[in-house]
Amino acid sequence: MSLSSMVFFNNQAARATRSDAARRQGGDRYRVLIDTPWFFIGYKNTDWNYLRSLSQLKRFVEIEAVYRFDLRDILLFSLEYILNRLHVRPTRFFDLTRRKLSRKMLGRLKIDAVLNHSTPPLIEDRCVPMIWQYAILDPDMSESYGFSKSALESEAENFADLVSRADVVQLSTEAEASRHRQRFPSHSHRFCVASFFLPELRAIERADVFAKHGRDEFIEILFVGREGRRKGLDIVAEAISMLEPALLPRIKLTIVAENASKAQFNTVSCSIFPHLDHADVLEKMRLAHIYLMPSRFESFGLVFIEAMAAGCAVIAPNWEVQSEITNYGEAGYTVAPTPDSVRQALSELVQSRQKRLRMAIQGYDRFGERYAPEKVSRQYLAMVRTAMTLHRRDRQENSHATRTNKT
Prior knowledge:
Blueprint: H1 3-19, E1 30-35, H2 46-53, E2 63-66, H3 71-85, E3 100-101, H4 103-108, E4 113-116, E5 122-123, E6 130-133, H5 139-145, H6 149-162, E7 168-171, H7 174-183, E8 191-193, H8 206-214, E9 219-224, H9 228-231, H10 233-241, E10 251-256, E11 269-273, H11 278-287, E12 290-292, H12 302-309, E13 313-317, H13 320-325, E14 333-335, H14 339-351, H15 353-371, H16 373-406
Helix pairs in contact: 1-16, 8-15, 10-14, 12-15, 15-16
């Protein structure tokens, strides 16, 4: 973020802190409607579960996440999900761009702002501010994964049509925000950074990071990725087959992925789990020295954050978002998702305790500085205040323009 942008958002948040207290509908807290269905047929969907977790913001900052039961929304979002899975174009009836949130409903729920993660609805009279959590993903990654330039351009055009509905567009990294500001300069003031909020995630003790990496007769390597090919499981298999033979007896590999086969990893000790509960995955991370997932396509990668908190040395793909998560190679290896690049990173980390520990500690510290729930919740608070300030300013400017036109 540029210095001028930082000053702008800091000033906006400061003004909101002083002036919005008297305007809050919910007393001491900002009441934010999380615009997601109360029930969703894709109940394992990461995005839906993440939005439900925002209810825990109130433990850290003065934000009250509000959820509403609306049968039409439950049907609408679930049917759209089914149609997308079947690659069927939604009909006009299921067009989410036509959804509306009424002033009456928002007033009844005492809503101060709306946060949406899919298609931003129309808010009657724009009576409250809208935060739209959406990003056009790294174009290099998307093209590499097979998306055509015409498809990416179509997405950008759709984004340009919808972005004016939002007072603030939430992005997860500064790199994304910078790219969006360059692509959409007339909306540059709308782009705000607030990372993913993981309310239950706690780092292990710092001393335990040192202790774990000191016990390295065997190097525990962990891969977690339900969609094995997209997450780069075949790349991992080929990379391990290319390692120096002397390193192989030291490696203990754990894979949590569907359709993984021990035959792919017959040169090392390997345990495979088609599925583990989240708590069990976190326990595996606390035991692992290296977390490895060279994804071909990754919108964010919450597992990298979790692995850093668990004191793992992380090997991640060098796409836009993951490069920022790992502080551009300081808090984890970022590699091209190719077997040779992964082999080189693995070889260095397996052989060098010093390098592995340095990566693990820097990743551990980066979690505490940027991604711990205490830090991310404050990003959300600043974002809500900025949305309210921008919304109020726009309404005042529109009101002034209307009066001028009448005279």
